[in-house]
Amino acid sequence: MEEGFRRTYSVSEITSEIAAKLESEFSFIWVEGEITSLRTPASGHIYFSLTDDKASLRCVMFKQHTRYLSVRVSGGGNLTEDDAISTEDDSEDKSLQRSLFGSEQAPKKRAPFKPADGQHVLVMGRIGVYAARGEYQLVAEVIEPVGIGAVTLALEQLKEELKEKGYFDEERKRPLPFLPNKIAVVTSPTGAALFDILKIIYQRHPGAQIVVVPTRVQGSGAEREIAHAIDLVNRHGAKDDVEKIDVIICGRGGGSMEDLMPFNSREVADAAFRSKIPIISAVGHEIDFSILDLTADVRAPTPTAAAEIVVPRVDDILMTLDSVTERLTLGIKNISSRKRSDLVNLLKRLRGPEESIHEMRGKVEMIRSRLLVAMQKKVDERKIRFSSFASALTRLSPTDVLSRGYAVVRRAATGEVILNAKDIEVGETATIKLHSGELTASVVEREVEEE
Question: Which member of 38, 186, 265, 394 has the lowest number of beta carbons within 10 Å of its beta carbon?
Fold first, then answer.
């Protein structure tokens, strides 16, 4: 709509024109920044913002481009062709691969990359306008980590390798000495970390000996110097003599990820792994975590904390000794009191010999009475049984039988008992035994019963 020299746009018109200008002007750009506010909804798209210290840019990566999320791995690695970005025969994919890799064939030495808040990245895409809200955004087609991102991936690979070799196993880690006499500190001689360590140790244990092994703690080649310093301490201080080093503190103060990289190196991890002397890792701040932290025997969140861990405060030790002594004294008193009470109770239970003899006499008398009662009972039982047997025998006695009118007949010549009439002949003489007295008779007649 035009009114004289003034042209008035509708919202959709101005938005459309802005979109046309932006999308034509910024159709292929690379933008560097830090990922913030990242969201990955169920649709598979990725929403995030790219920020620096002065501005923020909304970004979106649609699902069809997320398969290109990978990072080039320096030094080869163990990736196979399956780890490379897939190549399809459509012209869009080939064009994108040519722009990224310089050829249609994607490089094989690449690893999967997952965007996350805080990563420093390069994003390739185009500026688009979301008309519904009148906002412009970067429609991303490629996201590549810059600096920290690539280093982080390499660190993860190194961590996995060292973990498989047993560098991080808790079983191999050694306890720290309770009160070390000589302490080696591997750090920068000009850093604040050394001052903090010395201050804490001398406050807590003024008699401790500290050997400072100076080394660079950042920059190219620092990892080799740190590893050499650890080896040097072991070479001269691992022997059991006056030069013996009890523990090593290795670390530095806080810094950026790049500053702390020497402590994430294979060289330092190897040196800590082969050290014969216990090592405390004291790298950066509490939120910083390095490979040395995982390999060392003990990890301290800060250099100051390392000094506090390695040397207990002498005053604290004395207070602890006083407390332990007090508890031991009280414990001995309690035990003595209980034992004295037990002794009194035992003495009360003890009796004199007269009382014991009297008690034993009572027990003997009670046993004697019980025996007499039992014996009398047995005698009475035997008497009853004897009387019963005597009565039975009496009833079976020949004399008793004769008293009932029976007689015993014998042949007079031989005394043979005659049981049957046929056993004696007529005319023989027989004697007859009666209950009282005996008769002599001559057999004049016999009557034999037929069998």
Answer: 394
